Amino acid sequence: MKFPRLFLLPLVSTMALTLASDAAEAPDPGQIEISVGRLLEQGHYSRKKLDEKVAPVFLKNYLDGLDYNHLYFTQKDIDLFTAKYATTLHNDVLLGNPEPAFIIFNIYKKRVEDRIAKIKEALKDTYDFTSDRTVEINRQKAPWPKDEADADQLWKLRVEGELLQESLNKHNVDTPAKLLAKRYDQVLRSLGEQTKEDIIKGFLTILAQTYDPHSEYMSRSELENFKINMALALVGIGAVLHSEDGYAKISELVPGGPASKEGHLKVGDRIAGVAQGDKDFVDAVDMKLDKVVEMIRGKKDTIVRLQVIPVNAPDPSVRKIIEIKREEIKLKDQEAKAEIIEHYGPDGNAVRLGWIVLPSFYADMEHSGAAGAKSTTKDVLALINRLKAEHIQGLVMDLRRDGGGSLEEAVNLTGLFIKRGPVVQSKDSNGHVNVSKDRDPSVAWDGPLIVCTNRLSASASEIFAAALQDYNRALIVGDSSTFGKGTVQTMLEIGRIMPFLGSGGNEAGALKLTIQKFYRIAGGSTQLRGVESDVKLPSLFDHQDIGEIALKGPLPYDTVPAADYEKVERPLFKTELKQRSAARVAVDPEFRYITEDLDVIKQRLADNRVSLNEKARRAEIEQDKARTDARNAAREKVKPPEIKTYTITLDNVNKPDLQLVTYDKPDKDKKGADNKSKDKDAVTQVQPSADDDADDEEATNKLNRYDAIKTETLNILNDLIDLTRNPKTATASANK
Q: Do 389 and 531 belong together in one domain?
């Protein structure tokens, strides 16, 4: 069965503002508005009319999109916009009237200009940072200031907080006042550079995302970039960025890309500055996303340095410097790969376990079925056959960070572990349900099986994990649930559908449109809820700010009738495995650290305020550093587990010798870029700083070869093997 290329679109929408286009070639924005509005009404999965019910939500989303922290508009502005557009904005779109978008944007621009003039005056004042005042960090859910006087009070605290934050930043390239003045000058420049295409792009993307967070309007220049390379080397370092809260934020790291291999840039990190080689940093806060991307892009083998705010930074003043060499990203880096791990079982005897890492569900769509065509299923089958030849007794499929890919590969890969039957159901906007099936009765691996997931496992990953869970074929281990993206998108080039907008090409851009939803064979959707783990492990990713549930306006969870399928009749001992794992996790210091850090993050997110007292802030930073130092000292005393690991790639899968993984200790006498190992599993150091606590912690983890989640997953697999051999050792309640 052939599947359309609906599923190859990115997990995260990138709301990038684009470079100015040639006005002479640009189609009429009003005609684009009409086309986007009609396509949303007629083609979106929800079939929701663009009417008076959608209009006020769309207006609110547009105002939120412009003034995301509710700082520039006042409630008086909001009331005026609401009175004028809340009941008519849908008609403006469907009649091709772009004036509301331009009018609202221009008022926003004027408010920003007026506010920055006041900020420039406030920066001349003297601040001693000795008060007991606090400032709110995230105001996205806060009300707009009621009037100009209220806004002045909010900004007085905000400017003081920004000055203190930059005073605490050890990587500043200028005085805090000068840095902030330059930053706000950059805001003004970015606003001044907005073209009509930019404004309409932002307006229509917000309209599409009012229907669901994965629908999006792409302007001509964005569409061209999308076509050039959808996932590989997207910004020169192998990272997908989107604009959020004035920052370029990391939404995805391309497996095998420079940033992923370097190891320090994380999903959720925010880029505060960019430097070329050893040149000075350019402040990137409130800079247009395409400008940030342009600075990060560059020639192969050149160096870019990023100043980032870590995703789990305890204080917004924390920065870390990451140095990355730009490289061409090759598909080979994203291929499936495997390990043979010689692990000791509960009885003390050595057990050989297989571990397959799958970064994505890839497929060569243009040459599908051809002898040499790339295929996830074909590659994983080759790895499994080699693992079986090496006499593994259990297997883990590692789908952590796997954002999805080919639906056909998800179905076929599931088929390697079941005899035959349905794998996933999909429903279109007409309510028609289609069942995708594995029709191959052969089974590549019928032994103990675990699927390891986290909050970043999405789309095709969730289909695979859900099917094996529903068949009772595999144990799911990891975060409480996966991402929860159970929708399918397609790309509609507007000029091809509405030829009056151009020559039938891409001048009018495209609409990425959600057209289907996925459902498990048991009937429930993977949308919003994802796939829940059978055995949950503490993880820093496992919180409500990551996943579909954290996005604005996701489609709801629902169900369809279950498909006709037969569960695998074998015990998985879930209750016993949970109990054994919980006992180990309770005494494992790494899991205790994770739990402690999660508690701190959740508390600080709940507080949503930071002190404006410099002494108090420095004390908090020192406390965090002392905690990290104590952890690292404790780790140094822990003897690394005596485990042999052999790597298997598609290049050496048929070679007789196994490649033993070795780990290099970093030379503590050398710092920075000169102390980088060629072994991707060895420690890679970055520019040292007291703010690099997270990096130090990660480095020690790598040094000790200790991935807590991987280690515990292997322990669970050992237990599963043991219980499968000796089921009488399980408690009476632990059978399925």
A: yes
